[in-house]
């Protein structure tokens, strides 16, 4: 479990470096500075490969891994990062920050899970604490939505960034109810068969992670943004067609060099499961409408879904330009 602690510390250090170094007017001004509110894991392998491909096309991309989506969003709003990764819907609506989503990276694919020694179903979580990724994240939205559907109220929600960290906390007994990704689900089933119960979720269609940026940055750097989008979508399409391509990309670009043998072993199974859900057309207006439906129900967005305007949350111009070039799948 020391691996999880090391990654948390590394993320904290990265956050400190980001805010001390990436200041307006610094030597980093010409770079495309991406703030990722998570840690680098198997689940981000294809994104890391896509970024390397954007670099090959002349875009000087620098990625900083931060300890939460909140910090990543703050970095973009304050100008300390150009592009953020996360789901900033609540920020966009409540703060009216001058940022826009411009590409869907992934859809929600999570599994609410409880320690069977304490809980058996959703009703058992009434008055209990649950752990999610971060404030305003898709994991929080799912858990709040399921509380509403099942007529329960949690005593509190704790924020534990990183699906691997939450998986480790479950195995250690430090967390009794949380939500993990497909990799975490496989680890729990392998390491402690029968100890954990995965609670029913039903059908959920919404954005998990997206790229977003300051509107001024999108206007002034449209060429670089479109190169990044094209690199991501072509990578997504390769992985969707052949999930084993992710492993080949890791080897080609020497990604995740510190990955443990267990993590490497999980690459092929993870992408075999994730491939069919990859948004190979970048989401766009259809994704925005799905998100309005989901996030208004879960409480992350206020008002009626039908009254929300796509242009208040998304800038579709660069994505549409790229799709005109590479076609829709």
Please name the defining characteristics of this protein.
SsuA/THI5, globular, disordered N terminus, D-Maltodextrin-Binding Protein, domain 2, NitT/TauT family transport system substrate-binding protein, alpha/beta, 329 residues, 5-stranded mixed beta sheet, 3-stranded antiparallel beta sheet, signal
Can you characterise this structure?
The protein is α/β, with parallel strands linked by helices and 329 residues long. It has helices spanning 2-21, 45-56, 69-78, 89-94, 138-149, 163-172, 182-191, 215-220, 222-241, 245-253, 261-274, 284-298, 317-326, and strands at 32-36, 61-65, 83-86, 99-107, 110-115, 129-132, 156-159, 177-181, 196-198, 207-214. The protein folds into two domains: 2-108 and 206-326, Periplasmic binding protein-like II (D-Maltodextrin-Binding Protein, domain 2, 3-Layer(aba) Sandwich), CATH 3.40.190.10; 115-198, Periplasmic binding protein-like II (D-Maltodextrin-Binding Protein, domain 2, 3-Layer(aba) Sandwich). Helix content is 47%, strand content 16%. Helix 2 (45-56) packs across helix 9 (222-241), helix 2 packs across helix 10 (245-253) and helix 6 runs parallel beside helix 7 (182-191). The radius of gyration is 19 Å and the shape is globular. Residues 55-246 form the SsuA/THI5-like domain.
